[in-house]
Amino acid sequence: MQRGRKSTDRAQLESAMEPGTLGVQPDAPPELSPDEAKEWQRFWAVSPTGWFPREVWPLLIQLCRHICQARFLGECLQEVRVGLLDPRDIEQIRHLELMTRLHDREGRAMTAIMEKLRLTTQQRVVNDKAAPQQAEQAPEVRPWIMPGTTSRAQ
User: Fold this and answer.
1) Higher pLDDT, 140 or 49
2) Which end of the chain is more exposed for a tag (fewer CB within 10 A), N or C?
């Protein structure tokens, strides 16, 4: 048990989570399909404790839906690639173009939500703290000044 006052970060984390849920993986919401529920479980399984407070669950639900929809559209496009599309049929080409646009839109939506939830690799990389200190300690080298001369022009 921690003595003294709670830190601001700790207090915010505890207020954001429901009592007793810290470190517990919640069941997938009932409005998710079985495939979407599997995505929900995957995110909870690999994320740190407290990463998804209750107020971001709607975003996570939407992300699971976008992932499954993008997967479905990708499978449809894969079927087209194996030769089920007649390249002479203009109507089929229009359907292909529409599916490609929908697939692209799903990918953009997934990326936007993942950035908001800080799930992208770029947002999880820890900056190297030693690099700025090493730069400060490195001697200043001026390659344009010849050894044995002064830096002032005479």
Assistant:
1) 49
2) N
